[in-house]
C-alpha cells in the first residue's frame, strides 16, 4: 500500500492513514493493519527498527497517526497524549444543520468525563462540515458526541442507522486533519496538517 509519510525524523514517523484500515490488530489478531503493512515494508528494506503506535484511529477514520521508532520514544509520546498535551483537530461531516456556530459537547462515555469543542465551517442543506477538537481521548468520542446532540457523523453505521437519513456516504466522513505537539525528544513544536482525502473533498463539493 502507498501510505503517505507526512513527517519523519530519527524518533517519530507520522503517516496519513487511509479509511478502512485498522491501526493495530484487535483481539481477533487481524493480519493486515497499518502497523503490519508499515513494518513489513521496513523489514523488506532491511531497516534496523520497527514502528510502534503512539495512539490509534478507528478503522473507518482517516488521517494523521503518530508512530515511534522504538519503545522508549513510544512511551514518551504516549505520555504526551495521556497528559492531553497533543492538540488534535478533526474534520467531520455531520447530518443536519448544526445551528450553533461553535460549542462544547460534554457527554460522559462509559461513565467517564468527555469533552469535545467544535465549530461549524460550512452548512449545507443536509449536513454540516465541522471542525472538532476532543479534549479527552475516549474511544469513538467524536462519533458518540455528535450522535448525542442529534447530528451523527455522515456514513456512521455503528452509532446511527443509515435508514434514518437520506444522505448516504461510502465511508465514515471523519478525518484526523491536524496535530500540534512538542516533540518528546527534541522539544521542537510540531504542527502537521493532512488535507481532506479526495472522496471527502468530492463529497463536500457535490452534495448540497
Q: What layout of secondary structure does this protein have?
A:
Elements lengths: L4 E4 L3 E6 L16 H11 L6 E3 L8 E8 L1 H12 L4 E9 L6 E5 L8 E9 L3 E8 L6 H8 L25 E9 L6 E5 L4 H9 L2
Parallel strand pairs: 4-9
Antiparallel strand pairs: 1-2, 2-4, 3-4, 5-8, 5-9, 6-7, 7-8, 9-10
Shape: globular
Q: Helix proportion of residues, in percent?
A: 10-25%
Q: What's the β-strand tally?
A: 10
SS class: alpha+beta
Q: What is the mean predicted local confidence, pLDDT?
A: 95
Measured between the Cα atoms of the first and last residue, the distance is 33 Å
Q: Specify the biggest β-sheet.
A: 10 strands, mixed
Order of helices and strands: EEHEEHEEEEHEEH
Task: Write down the Rg.
Answer: 17 Å
> pLDDT under 50 segments (min length 5)?
none
How many helix segments? Answer: 4
DSSP strand (E) fraction? 25-35%
Overview of this structure, please?
The chain has 208 residues and is α+β, with helices and mostly antiparallel strands. It contains 4 helices and 10 strands. The longest helix is centred in the middle third of the chain and has 12 residues, at 71-82. It starts with a strand and ends with a helix. The mean pLDDT is 95.
Summarize the structure.
This protein is an alpha+beta fold and 208 residues long. Helix content is 19%, strand content 32%.
Supply the key terms.
208 residues, 4 helices, globular
Amino acid at each position: 500500500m502507498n501510505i503517505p509519510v507526512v513527517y519523519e525524523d530519527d524518533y517519530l514517523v507520522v503517516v496519513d492513514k487511509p479509511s478502512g484500515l485498522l491501526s493495530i490488530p484487535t483481539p481477533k489478531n487481524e493480519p493486515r493493519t497499518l502497523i503490519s503493512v508499515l513494518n513489513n515494508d521496513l523489514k523488506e528494506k532491511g531497516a534496523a527498527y520497527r514502528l510502534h503506535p503512539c495512539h490509534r484511529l478507528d478503522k473507518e477514520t482517516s488521517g494523521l497517526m503518530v508512530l515511534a521508532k522504538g519503545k522508549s520514544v513510544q512511551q514518551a509520546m504516549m505520555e504526551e497524549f495521556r497528559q492531553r498535551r497533543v492538540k488534535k483537530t478533526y474534520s467531520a461531516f455531520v447530518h443536519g444543520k448544526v445551528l450553533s456556530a461553535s460549542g462544547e459537547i460534554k457527554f460522559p462515555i462509559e461513565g467517564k468525563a468527555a469533552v469535545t469543542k467544535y465549530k461549524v465551517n460550512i452548512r449545507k442543506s443536509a449536513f454540516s462540515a465541522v471542525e472538532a477538537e476532543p479534549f479527552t481521548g475516549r474511544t469513538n468520542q467524536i462519533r458518540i458526541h455528535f450522535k448525542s446532540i442529534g447530528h451523527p457523523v455522515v456514513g456512521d453505521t455503528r452509532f446511527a442507522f443509515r435508514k434514518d437519513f437520506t444522505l448516504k456516504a461510502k465511508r465514515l466522513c471523519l478525518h484526523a486533519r491536524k496535530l500540534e505537539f512538542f516533540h518528546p525528544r527534541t522539544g521542537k513544536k510540531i504542527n502537521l496538517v493532512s488535507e481532506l482525502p479526495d472522496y471527502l473533498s468530492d463529497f463536500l463539493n457535490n452534495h448540497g
